[in-house]
Design goal:
The protein contains 12 helices and 2 strands, in the order ααααααβαβααααα. The chain has about 270 residues and is mainly alpha-helical.
């Protein structure tokens, strides 16, 4: 009896245990949304396995999904920091679609939904005004007086409210462009991690040429140019530093820090040598 029960338990364990074949295990992990496990399993398929090349191709596809998911989450965090919760939520949900098992994504989405709900409720309570259209666009407010105060025919006045200042909508790009931008930015971060600042700048300039309206590329280019300008200034290359900061201002005209640095370094460069 005990032997029979043990055999059944062993058979059941064999059924529910993860497949020993790394290729099969990788496919199961990818379908369940565990992309990290899928990537590791695909990369563990030995070179002698006839499916090795297919595993490498699948690993690359999984890695692109992960990069796309991380980039969408990063976009969402930036938008959230700018107070654009509705757009941030859309970007974060896109990240979860690409990688359902992305660590912390559910918490980011939940927190953003809560804050969006709080802001929407607060806006509705403010002065008892009801927007006639979506609260993120232009709207007209209608005030209704009590019938007892003005008679049966209540007077209704329409007051045009100022349009809130909102960021320009992010251009719609194709999936292919999204992949190219995400992979390009990943390459830039890899170069920076290796200390290849000049190559990172070149990569960003090329990305900016190909995708001139993508705010992620422009923002990263401005930051890296600012970094290089500081380095050049420290090396005494004032003209080169000024050129980089002028490029930053062209991208970010309201960057007060860079404006101040640029004015000071220009004055220093113009001062007669002692």
């Amino acid at each position: 009896m005990r032997k029979g029960a043990s055999a059944l338990l062993l058979a059941f364990a064999a059924c529910v245990a993860a497949p020993s074949d790394p290729f099969v295990r990788a496919g199961a992990a990818a379908r369940s949304g565990d992309l990290l496990a899928a990537l590791a399993a695909y990369e563990s398929v030995p070179a002698t396995d006839p499916r090795h090349e297919e595993a490498r191709a699948n690993a690359l596809e999984v890695e692109v999904r992960m990069q796309r998911s991380h980039q969408s989450l990063l976009d969402g965090i930036v938008l959230r920091g700018n107070g654009e919760d509705r757009s941030a939520l859309t970007s974060m949900e896109r990240a979860r679609d690409a990688w359902p098992g992305l660590p912390s994504i559910d918490r980011w989405i939940a927190a953003t939904r809560v804050r969006l709900g709080q802001r929407t409720a607060a806006a509705a309570r403010t002065a008892g005004l009801r927007p006639a259209v979506d609260c993120e666009g232009p709207f007209v407010v209608v005030e209704e007086e009590e019938a007892g105060e003005r008679g049966a025919d209540a007077a209704v006045s329409q007051v045009s409210a100022p349009r809130p200042r909102i960021a320009a909508p992010r251009p719609v790009v194709s999936v292919g462009d999204e992949d190219a931008i995400s992979l390009g930015l990943v390459q830039v971060e890899t170069r920076l991690a290796r200390g290849e600042l000049e190559l990172a700048v070149l990569d960003l300039l090329e990305l900016a040429r190909r995708h001139p309206v993508d705010f992620r590329v422009q923002d990263r280019l401005a930051r890296v140019l600012h970094q290089r300008a500081l380095l050049r200034y420290g090396q005494g290359a004032l003209a080169a530093a000024i050129a980089d900061w002028e490029r930053v201002i062209a991208i970010q005209p309201d960057n007060r820090v860079v404006h101040a640095l640029l004015d000071a370094v220009r004055a220093e460069a113009a001062a007669p040598a002692r």
